[in-house]
Design brief:
Number of domains: 2
Order of helices and strands: HHHHHHHHHHHHHHHHHHHH
Shape: globular
Mean pLDDT: 81
Largest sheet: none
Strand content: under 5%
Number of helices: 20
Radius of gyration: 23 Å
Number of strands: 0
Helix content: over 70%
């Protein structure tokens, strides 16, 4: 299978998972919010978020392992792949034990006098925290196995696991809705259970499928490789922790200044942002192994080209859904949640705008991972993003509104995008002029007509289902036209035309066979 067809096939598997999980997540969130109430939902978002946001840390260290495995696969060194996996498993076992101990230690202090949680719900909050620590332990141990799955591009299994997990979450939401006990504690236990089950399934699949995952000798150490991978993982972890610190720091600041009701709004807004960005995340996920294998095979020009493609089309995929959602957020949230917590609309809009800004350079993050020289990159860019927390604290202390926190986040996201372009020019010789032309300019030129047409529809139609459908239809058509006419170069247009001719022929051939 060619690289292009493999990417399309893998993206298709991930999109199928995304469509199902998005629908289930939106429906189950509504049930959970109704079952728990705004206050308990806010408590769960706050407490579990302290641990669940380690999913970003998990993604970072998983990327580290995937990077080394992909580089070895790209260079054709199968023996090195086994060494990398064994070393990665040793690192993650140690990390899982350390983080579980650290989180339990931190848990002794954050609940007493720091978090703004009603006293009658304090015991339930602590129980949820312990459940999340357990799920985090299993998640970290499974990281090398998941990284092997991604490096080998077996995304069909990941899609299957994701769909199964989302169905289980829907079942949990229904069970919760009809439960008579402490629903908050029950929800925390069942959600942790789903995470553990998913982890174990990934481990079993990798052991059965990949040679490097079988018969691992944990008592054999490669000090040089251990040092190299540890250094890379630590700096990658630093960048992830900065992102986690920014996101969870924002949650804590909002809690301290405004209470759990605003945390409920923030939790809903993050859920909307997460589901909306899934299209672009899946596309990047399908491209990442190919980007890293290109670098491992010594083809840096191809690596940089694929990174630009990932940034441009990642932005298009996010904007395709984000623009109409930003425009119609009040109506969509009202239909979805029935009872919309205060600040939810403005939080959703600003978080989505910040996501669009970050998406402009999303492919450069994978390019930096591929090159491997990430110490200065992660320390500068990560620290810049983390500045959002202290600056937000100062601004809120001055009496500003809660939504100003997200305006500050957009500003720092813009600065980070500029720094990523600068660093990739230094690290890998990124042609800045070409990047600006191919990604930034094309992205803006495709977005402006869509925004204008959406505003025109809103000008002539009152809020409601007709305006929502009109906005979605007009923005979709306008985006498709502008992306093809402006957003794609000649090479990409030829590939699209070729796919449009080839797919119907394959379908016809199979039907007649």
């Amino acid at each position: 299978m060619s690289s292009a067809n493999r990417v399309i096939s893998n993206t298709g598997f991930l999109y199928a998972k995304m469509l199902i999980t998005m629908f289930v997540a939106l429906f189950s969130t509504r049930l959970v919010l109704q079952a728990l109430g705004a206050e308990d939902f806010g408590i769960f978002s706050l407490v579990s978020g302290i641990v669940l946001l380690l999913a970003f840390v998990n993604a970072a260290i998983s990327t580290s392992t995937q990077r080394f495995i992909s580089i070895c696969l790209g260079s054709g060194d199968s023996e090195k792949v086994a060494d990398v996996f064994r070393t990665s498993l040793q690192l993650h076992l140690g990390l899982a034990i350390f983080l579980a101990f650290l989180l339990e230690l931190v848990g002794l202090f954050i609940f007493d006098g720091f978090l703004n949680i009603p006293s009658e719900r304090m015991a339930a909050s602590k129980i949820i925290y312990h459940f999340m620590v357990v799920s985090t332990f299993f998640t970290i141990i499974s990281v090398p196995y998941v990284a092997a799955l991604v490096a080998h591009e077996d995304f069909w299994f990941e899609a299957l696991i994701g769909i199964a997990g989302s169905i289980l979450k829907l079942i949990v939401a229904v069970v919760l809705f009809y439960s008579n006990g402490d629903r908050l504690v029950l929800y925390g236990a069942l959600m942790a259970g789903i995470i553990v089950i998913n982890c174990l399934l990934n481990v079993v699949f990798a052991i059965v499928k990949y040679e490097e995952c079988k018969r691992i000798q944990l008592n054999v150490f490669d000090r040089r490789l251990m040092g190299e991978m540890s250094s890379f993982a630590c700096w990658n972890l630093f960048g992830a922790l900065c992102s986690v610190g920014r996101a969870q720091g924002t949650a804590v600041i909002l809690n301290v200044f405004f209470g759990t009701i605003v945390n409920a709004a923030y939790g809903v807004a993050r859920q909307v942002s997460s589901q909306t960005s899934t299209f672009s995340v899946n596309m990047l996920k399908a491209l990442s192994p190919l980007i890293m294998k290109s670098e491992g095979g010594g083809d840096r020009q191809k690596m940089l080209y694929l990174s630009m493609v990932a940034s441009r089309f990642g932005y298009f995929l996010l904007a395709f859904f984000a623009v109409p959602l930003i425009a119609e957020a009040p109506f969509v949230l009202d239909v979805w949640l029935k009872t919309v917590p205060d600040y939810t609309v403005i939080f959703c809009r600003l978080i989505l705008i910040g996501g669009l800004v970050g998406q402009i350079t999303i492919g450069l993050q994978t390019a930096a991972q591929s090159v491997g020289k990430i110490k200065l990159y992660q320390s500068v860019v990560g620290s810049l993003l983390l500045l959002n927390v202290p600056v937000s604290w100062v601004v809120l202390k001055m009496g500003y509104n809660a939504y100003v926190v997200f305006l500050i986040a957009i500003f720092f996201e813009l600065l980070a995008a500029v720094l990523r372009i600068f660093f990739l020019r230094k690290l890998a010789g990124l042609p800045v002029g070409q990047y600006v032309k191919e990604v930034v300019v094309r992205g803006c030129l495709c977005t402006i007509p869509v925004v204008v047409t959406v505003l025109l529809v809103q000008l002539f139609l009152p809020p409601g289902w007709l305006r929502l459908f009109s906005v979605v239809a007009v923005s979709s058509v306008t985006f498709c036209v502008t992306i093809y006419c402006i957003g794609m170069n000649g090479r990409e247009k030829k590939q699209v035309i070729s796919i449009m001719h080839t797919v119907p022929q394959k379908i016809k051939a199979r039907m007649s066979a």
